[in-house]
Amino acid sequence: MKPYDRKIVLENGREFYGYGFGAHKEAVCEIVFNTSMVGYQEILSDPSYTGQMVVMTYPLIGNYGVNDEDYETKYPTIGGMIVREYNDIPSNFRYTKTMNEEFEEHRIPGISGIDTRCVTRIIRSEGSQRVIMTDADVPTEEALRRLREHPIPTDTVSRVSCRKRWMSRTPNHKYDVVAVDCGIKYNIIRSLNQKGCNVTVVPYNATVDEILSFRPDGVFLSNGPGDPEYVTPVIEAVKKLRGRLPIFGICLGHQMISLAYGARTFKMKFGHRGGNHPVKNLDTGKIEITSQNHSFAVDIDSLKDTRLRLTHINLLDNTAEGVECPEDKVFSVQYHPESAPGPQDSTGLFDKFIKMMEEHRNA
Questions:
Q1: Fewest beta carbons less than 10 Å away: which of 52, 102, 255, 262?
Q2: Is position 162 annotated as part of the catalytic site?
């Protein structure tokens, strides 16, 4: 049997040995799990995973490689990946490189041969915690010392947001949207383009004057990593923009809108990550199968003291999944409609945004 060359050590002292792939480097991250059966390329390139090491519950990863068309960002910033079995011989006519090559290029560590069922149960029972991936011969106490001394980052949004504005255009566009980039996924931009929107992507700390200078029909607030309370520039921008332009938020954008209206957010025990979460639309009674990726959630009770009303709820744990302020033309959802796990359950949210912009233009 091939000797183990890498291991992970959890904050609770549990350690698991395996085989490294990707970049050979030590990494300290928050450990989380994802229940998706497909889409590992979208996961590894989603900026919302910045600083997180993802346990894939599906046992076989890497079997269809990665390709040039399906990236969600230009430079992946995921902290690492933990899998049961890694396949380095992809079988897919679209693949352009292996996941190992992708991880090596972007200095991302991975480990295979891990009992991912056991690790997932630990996270489910004890909650998200920090983990270190290191060489197999590093003593456990030394690994734990390095883990404890590693600082917890609070600048994740500033690390993944664009530095300068950029544009994504579509032929014969009807609307102009400014997207505030807190770690935006490319498929959100593609979805807006498909609906006839030219999208101008601006940094998370763009001022209200800068946003308005593009004369947008609406403003979009993106997904992104970390605690929403740290993203004060966006929260303050929402306070100044609400009621002036239609605003649509997804994931972190949903949380920042809620904070701007006076609601509270909290860190979940282990978050929501995967493409199989049932969400109920409280207006229609419709159940949507959704894709999710977040550690924080909006406190439902705190919405009572705001002008926001609850529009969607998660049927697994009754957490808030959507809010709206009709008089301000502001709405948001916690889940990712552009991921289309339904596959068309949630695409109407983009149509709702389009309708709001049309009504605002004609008002």
A1: 262
A2: no
